[in-house]
Write a structure and sequence with these properties.
The structure is a single chain. This protein is mainly α. Helices cover 76% and strands 0% of the residues. It has helices at residues 2-21, 28-45, 51-72, 86-118.
């Protein structure tokens, strides 16, 4: 129910933004709204101690998908990353590196908990 409510709210918000701003054409706004709704649900679902790492991993995955998409598709002249600069590459690289570090920390914590429970501790 929470996921459905988040998605419906995101779509209604995106429709209102598209109606009043007219800056985004096509389905880009709807896909962004759906991803925002799912991201908000996931943010709510993650334990508070791991939220920062979860957001970092999500941002790094976005940077990875964005850079992969940019390699495969040539955006129009006014699109996002239509001209890639060194600053863009540095920010994307930093996002991916931070996500890798956060994922490593999460995995290290998960393994130590798994080892603790495997030894027969409650």
């Amino acid at each position: 129910m929470l996921l459905s409510l988040g998605l419906v709210t995101a779509l209604v918000y995106a429709t209102a933004v598209a109606a009043f701003t007219m800056t985004v054409v096509g389905f880009l706004l709807y896909f962004t709204a759906i991803l925002a709704g799912v991201g908000a649900y996931n943010f709510h679902l993650v334990a508070p101690a791991e939220r920062t790492d979860a957001v970092t991993v999500t941002a790094g995955l976005f940077a990875l998908v964005l850079s992969g998409s940019r390699l495969l598709v040539e955006p129009p002249g006014i699109g996002a990353l239509s001209s890639v600069t060194a600053v863009h590459a540095l920010l994307i690289g930093a996002g991916i590196a931070a996500a890798g570090y956060a994922a490593y920390g999460l995995e290290r914590r998960r393994r130590s908990i798994a080892r603790h429970h495997a030894r027969g501790y409650p």
